[in-house]
């Protein structure tokens, strides 16, 4: 052995030898750490006997930051509360936060970083459909786990994602039924921003209006994201006089849309409007007085009157200031860590496969929105509510449905 | 041999090229894990655009603020092929129309659009990656340069084109996947491009193509054409009066830059596994100009370093300071423009070379030969002290 080595070692650079030694030391220490892990972690996740690492992947910068900040805050609140109550399987949760920067490729890059480099046990993150679509292949390839908080268009179901917001049929069908019944609505005008969520939502709405409610769609218009000129649309609405304007305008366009409606004299005394995309967060920008009397369909409103929600609102305000507001997605984001905790404890393990297997049937009776349960298809059973906008930027809940089964691939609506 | 040596920019050029090659082909693959190496691979796809910009902006004086268009076209061509391969009837059987890409199904399209049909063929795709962007560049170039639209007007038109293409892609979501882009690309001719071994191979293919582009760029710059480009940039009228067809040269160099960008885009789609309109618009296009500016818009190799540095900065800052990183990047850009207007290559010119000559104590050879990629013409040499703004047409 020695004699064979003496020759080459003379040419073997000392630094390289040192480097190799150091590397093997590091490898050894990493390995010993991994062998410490018990049954709760058989797949090499970043779990130590006292700590479990999770990822948080939202846009802290860019155009989506304003929407995603609420989700970041809610997830942190839930994790803090879980840590304060003893953590999960005796481990404290440590967060690695990454910024998706409102940029879909960045989301994909950071998702890979979290799963491959940080070996996080789960990720709470994403907001827009585009960002979810960008990270989805990464989560499926690396077998990660994502808790996705936003209400979205459906048509998706992944082993590696738990969808804590509503899919489109949950949000749309009950609210259309309600408005047809209480307002006797027969004619609808559909308006949306031009991307996959409004388009799919309106497709579902149109089928429901035409086939189930036997009403008519008198107009359907889409505007580019960020559009701020709604003058011609408002004129068309005034001309067609639909019973209901059904809107899914998102982001900054919202502010322009409702202010221009108000300026054109279209308010709730003259026009019924139901929106899918205005939460308390958006109302901050739009101003409650500009939308007073219009309706929004969501599963959660900050004004919900139940003990769970009172505790949630109080804790949120205590942590982030008394002026902070909580919208639908913020609440859905808050559910993520709790649902994960319940699934991990049921599985007795952080292994993604075991957590996923344990997830269907998980119930959360402490949810601010009331009661939720994870369906086989990884979406949540939830109620739909209609809120009426108040001048102070809050909603008055005027309708609450039964628990609705999630159905991301609705037959007859595709 | 002598000709080859000259083409590579003399001894200095060869050394510079070798250093970069060692860094990319040896140092990175040995020191970085699969994930980081894949990210470097992604950065290098932007370097294609930056190298193209050095040719058309740094030397040709054509500041294109719409290179994302070509990057995007190349990327979309490749992504369309990969998406078709990923959408075989078996894996899309959950859709109402199996066998077409998922986003088409979501947009109630029941038949593969004619535009997509040729992208079943890999040969066609590879050709389209090059030909389509070059064709577009040719049309834009002929339309504008023949009419002697130049300078800032040209930049504005390229921006408008980037905007138009973005709106078109987002608007035609049944055809293009809209704002989500084309996602979930899995295999290339049955070869799983998401595995670590595939990513490693793609990294080397990407690096090889990049060096091919750099060498081609050096070849152009060291030919008579390169001198003409610089002459045009500095005094266009004089070249025209000498009997040269100025527009033809401009169109050519613009097409070359478009071709480089498109190769980068195609490699991007392969390595990252998706393509979206966020690479096509004005903001990414300007970012690409920044890569070239940081690296030094007169240096082909500098452009590569610039792309690596800026993108590494982006990744590093955003991982370390998720809420502050944009300010840090902004600060970096301002600092570069204010203090190193000629970018990294300029910094090397003014400080690194002096330092190197002090170390090697061979001043004679060092001073005599030009910087990597920088071949001063007599005209330029006179102007050496001039600020970049003055050099810029």
Automatic annotation (TrEMBL), chain A:
The keyword Signal applies. Keywords: Signal. GO terms for biological process: amino acid transport. Residues 1-37 form the signal peptide. Gene3D superfamilies: 3.40.50.2300. The keyword Signal applies. NCBIfam families: urea_ABC_UrtA (TIGR03407). This is Amino acid/amide ABC transporter substrate-binding protein, HAAT family.
TrEMBL record, chain B:
Its main location: membrane. It is found in: Cell inner membrane. GO terms for molecular function: branched-chain amino acid transmembrane transporter activity. CDD domains: TM_PBP1_LivM_like. It holds the Pfam family BPD_transp_2. GO terms for cellular component: plasma membrane. InterPro entries: ABC_transp_permease (IPR001851), ABC_transptr_urea_perm_UrtC (IPR017778), LivM-like (IPR043428). Coiled coil: none annotated. Keywords: Cell membrane, Membrane, Transmembrane, Transmembrane helix. It is a multi-pass membrane protein. The chain crosses the membrane at residues 12-32, 44-66, 122-145, 152-171, 200-221, 242-268, 288-312, 324-341. This is Amino acid/amide ABC transporter membrane protein 2, HAAT family.
């Amino acid at each position: 052995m020695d004699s064979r080595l003496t020759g080459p070692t003379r040419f073997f650079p000392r630094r390289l030898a040192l480097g190799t030694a150091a590397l093997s030391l590091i490898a050894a220490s990493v390995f010993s750490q991994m062998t410490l892990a018990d049954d709760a972690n058989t797949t090499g996740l970043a779990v130590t006997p006292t700590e479990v690492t999770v990822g948080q992947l939202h846009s802290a910068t860019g155009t989506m930051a304003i929407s995603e900040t609420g989700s970041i805050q809610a997830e942190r609140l839930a994790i803090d509360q879980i840590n304060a109550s003893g953590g999960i399987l005796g481990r404290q949760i440590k967060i690695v936060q990454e910024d998706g920067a409102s940029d879909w490729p960045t989301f994909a890059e950071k998702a890979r970083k979290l799963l491959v480099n940080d070996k996080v046990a789960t990720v709470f993150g994403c907001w827009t459909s585009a960002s979810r679509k960008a990270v989805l292949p990464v989560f499926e390839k690396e077998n990660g786990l994502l808790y996705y908080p936003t209400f979205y268009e459906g048509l998706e179901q992944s082993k590696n994602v738990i969808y804590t917001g509503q899919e489109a049929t949950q949000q749309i069908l009950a609210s259309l039924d309600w408005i047809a019944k209480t307002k006797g609505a027969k004619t609808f005008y559909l308006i949306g921003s031009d991307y996959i969520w409004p388009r799919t939502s309106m497709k579902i709405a149109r089928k429901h209006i035409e086939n189930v409610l036997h009403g008519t769609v008198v107009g359907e218009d889409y505007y580019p994201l960020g559009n701020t000129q709604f003058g011609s649309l408002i004129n068309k609405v005034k001309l067609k006089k639909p019973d209901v304007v059904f809107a899914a305008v998102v982001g900054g366009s919202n502010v322009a849309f409702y202010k221009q409606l108000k300026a054109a004299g279209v308010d709730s005394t003259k026009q019924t409007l139901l929106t899918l995309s205005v939460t308390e967060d958006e109302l901050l920008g739009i101003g409650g007085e500009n939308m007073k009397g219009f309706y929004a369909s969501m599963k959660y409103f900050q004004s919900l009157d139940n003990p769970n929600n009172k505790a949630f609102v109080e804790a949120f305000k205590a942590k982030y200031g008394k002026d902070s507001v909580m919208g639908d997605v913020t609440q859905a984001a808050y559910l993520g860590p709790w649902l994960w905790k319940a699934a991990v404890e049921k599985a007795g393990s952080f292994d993604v496969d075991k957590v996923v297997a344990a997830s269907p049937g998980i119930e959360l009776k402490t949810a601010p929105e009331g009661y939720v349960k994870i369906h086989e298809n990884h979406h949540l059973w939830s109620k739909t509510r209609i809120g009426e906008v108040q001048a102070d930027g809050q909603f008055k809940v005027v309708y609450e449905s039964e628990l609705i089964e999630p159905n991301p691939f609705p037959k007859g609506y595709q | 041999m002598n000709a080859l040596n000259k083409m590579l920019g003399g001894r200095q050029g060869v050394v510079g090229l070798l250093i970069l090659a060692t860094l990319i082909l040896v140092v990175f693959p040995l020191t970085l894990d699969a994930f980081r190496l894949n990210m470097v691979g992604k950065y290098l796809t932007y370097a294609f655009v930056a190298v193209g910009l050095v040719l058309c902006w740094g030397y040709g004086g054509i500041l294109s603020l719409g290179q994302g268009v070509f990057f995007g076209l190349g990327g979309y061509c490749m992504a369309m092929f990969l998406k078709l391969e990923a959408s075989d009837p078996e894996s899309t059987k959950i859709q109402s129309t199996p066998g077409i890409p998922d986003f088409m199904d979501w947009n109630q399209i029941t038949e593969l659009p004619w535009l997509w049909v040729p992208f079943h063929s890999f040969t066609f795709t590879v050709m389209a990656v090059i030909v389509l962007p070059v064709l577009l560049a040719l049309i834009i170039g002929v339309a504008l340069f023949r009419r002697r639209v130049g300078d800032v007007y040209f930049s504005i038109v390229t921006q408008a084109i980037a905007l138009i293409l973005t709106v078109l892609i987002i608007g035609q979501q049944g055809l293009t996947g809209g704002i989500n882009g084309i996602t979930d690309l899995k295999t290339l001719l049955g070869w799983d491009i998401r595995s670590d071994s595939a990513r490693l191979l793609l990294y080397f293919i990407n690096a090889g193509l990049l060096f091919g582009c750099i060498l081609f760029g050096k070849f152009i710059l060291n030919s008579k054409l390169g001198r003409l480009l610089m002459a045009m940039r500095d005094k266009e009228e004089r070249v025209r009066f000498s009997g040269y067809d100025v527009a033809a040269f401009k169109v050519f160099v613009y097409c070359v830059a478009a071709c480089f960008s498109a190769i980068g885009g195609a490699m991007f789609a392969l390595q990252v596994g998706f393509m979206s309109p966020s690479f096509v618009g004005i903001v990414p296009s300007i970012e690409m100009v920044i890569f070239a500016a940081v690296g030094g818009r007169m240096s082909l190799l500098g452009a590569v370093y610039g792309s690596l540095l800026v993108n590494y900065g982006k990744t590093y800052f955003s991982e370390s300071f998720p809420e502050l990183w944009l300010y840090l990047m902004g600060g970096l850009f301002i600092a570069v423009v204010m203090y190193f207007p000629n970018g990294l290559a300029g910094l090397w010119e003014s400080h690194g070379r002096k330092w190197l000559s002090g170390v090697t104590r061979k001043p004679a050879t060092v001073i005599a030969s030009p910087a990597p990629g920088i071949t001063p013409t007599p005209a330029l040499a006179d102007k050496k002290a001039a600020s970049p703004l003055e050099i810029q047409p």
